[in-house]
Design brief:
452 residues, mainly alpha, MgtE N-terminal fold, CBS-domain, Tetracycline Repressor, domain 2, 3 domains, three-stranded mixed beta sheet
């Protein structure tokens, strides 16, 4: 029945069950829902019903719910649960999720939570938190199933059953030696197709694709994407297996990185979303806008220097917004292409040269096409072929320069180990405005005598 219910109907049904205290029906309802759906319904409940729901859920359901929520809501639930149940849930949580939650707290609160956990669990979480942010070590999970290579298929399957709670979340068994060095990997599919008495060393893959513990999380995402893995093992500098990164964590990272790059490209600042206060959002955007305002003043000074030219040929003013706007647009397009390419491709001198050559050709084709078109428009509109040629030539040059600026600036930033996404759209647009006006009026001044 729940499969056919809308979110509003599920919300109404959950409220009804909570208010009527039908705990068994409520538990059945939650068991049939995905954790994400339970979390979505939980967020919209009034505070008293939230308290009722978390008292009804068993530890497994409650852990699934907590892992689907944001850091602030997780903190709210732990506060409502009390110390004993909080420790129980934290001990059951995936260590990478717990490390992310604790990393969002103050050092004092983080220590308080860790000190209440089981020693083995808190030690594992502390180890994750010691790795640099946005690396494989920081996002890995140390709950995985490993086996020695001398196991039979029957023994391996028995171990999966013994660690059912862990093995339900992954699809691989990792083969290690006595010193925990990674020797091979076996998929669950391999086990099903093999004979019960087969040895693991006969069916395992020895060419294991792994990632180093200090590898950047974006490169880890590339590995999982390139090989279509559900999980990838993480090894230390001695090739010892210390954890795994699963595809669900990678999806979160890809979305986070994409949002972060969009925020930088738009110059809106990091960590601004629907829930950010107006004052906070404004102060995060202001540094960019003040910088762009100062650069924009240069455009005004350029126009003032060519006031005499404008006074003699007023028609030049008609095309100023178009020249500046088109240059900024083509620069922003190139910037988006380069930033996306830097994320997904290995950067070599040959690749950079090919990209610059390609974008130069793109700029030339776009410039010639748009330049010829605007020349004809200016000639028909104003009845002056010379004016059309000036506007057309200016547009050709500015579009080429705008394309190259959008290509070279992020490449230079990447070369100097600066995040190329900071070469934001507004910055390149403003710089291109200055260049385009200078070129436009410079060419107009050169051919002014032919216009009069």
């Amino acid at each position: 029945m729940q499969n056919n219910m809308t979110e509003e109907q599920l919300q109404a049904e959950m409220r009804r069950l909570l208010e009527s205290k039908h705990s068994e029906e409520l538990e059945t309802m939650v068991q049939e829902l995905q954790p994400y759906d339970v979390a979505t319904l939980f967020k919209d409940l009034p505070h008293p019903l939230k308290e009722k729901l978390i008292t009804v859920l068993d530890p497994v359901m409650l852990t699934d719910l907590v892992e689907e929520l944001g850091n602030e809501q997780q903190y709210e639930i732990f506060r409502l649960l009390g110390p004993a149940r909080t420790v129980e849930i934290m001990d059951r949580m995936d260590n990478d999720d717990l490390a992310q939650f604790l990393g969002s707290l103050s050092e004092e609160d983080s220590r308080r939570f860790l000190s209440s956990m089981k020693l083995s669990e808190s030690a594992a979480v502390r180890q994750l938190m010691n790795y640099p942010p946005e690396t494989a070590g920081r996002i890995m999970n140390n709950r995985y199933v490993w086996i020695p290579q001398h196991y039979t298929v029957t023994e391996a399957i028995a171990k999966i059953r013994d660690f059912a709670e862990i093995s339900e979340a992954i699809s691989y068994l990792y083969v290690i030696d006595d010193s925990k060095k990674l020797l091979g990997v076996v998929s669950y599919r391999d086990l099903i197709l093999a004979m019960p008495g087969d040895k693991i060393y006969d069916i395992m893959y020895t060419r294991v694709i792994s990632v180093a513990v200090d590898m950047d999380q974006e490169k880890v995402a590339d590995v999982i994407r390139n090989y279509d893995f559900l999980a990838v093992p993480v090894v230390d500098h001695d090739d010892r297996l210390i954890g795994i990164v699963t595809v669900d964590d990678i999806i979160d990272i890809v979305i986070h990185e994409a949002n972060e790059d969009i925020q930088k490209l738009s110059g809106s600042g990091r960590d601004i979303d629907f829930n950010t206060k107006a004052s906070v959002a404004a102060f995060r955007r202001l540094p960019w806008l003040v910088l762009l305002l100062l650069i924009g003043l240069v455009s005004g000074s350029i126009i003032s220097q060519f006031e005499e030219v404008l006074g003699k040929v007023v028609a030049l003013a008609y095309f100023m917004p178009m020249i500046a706007g088109m240059t900024g647009n083509t620069g922003t397009q190139s910037l988006a292409v380069v930033v996306r390419g830097l994320i997904s491709n290995e950067i070599t001198a040959k690749a950079v040269f090919q990209l610059i050559r390609r974008e130069l050709l793109v700029g030339l084709i776009i410039g010639l096409t748009c330049g010829i078109l605007v020349t004809l428009i200016a000639f028909i509109w104003q009845g002056s072929l010379m004016l059309g040629l000036i506007v057309g030539l200016s547009l050709i040059l500015t579009l080429i320069i705008g394309t190259m600026a959008g290509t070279i600036i992020p490449l230079l930033l990447n070369k100097f180990k600066i995040d190329p996404a900071v070469a934001s759209g507004p910055l390149i647009t403003t710089l291109n405005d200055v260049l385009s006006l200078f070129i436009y009026f410079g060419i107009a001044s050169m051919f002014l005598k032919y216009l009069l």
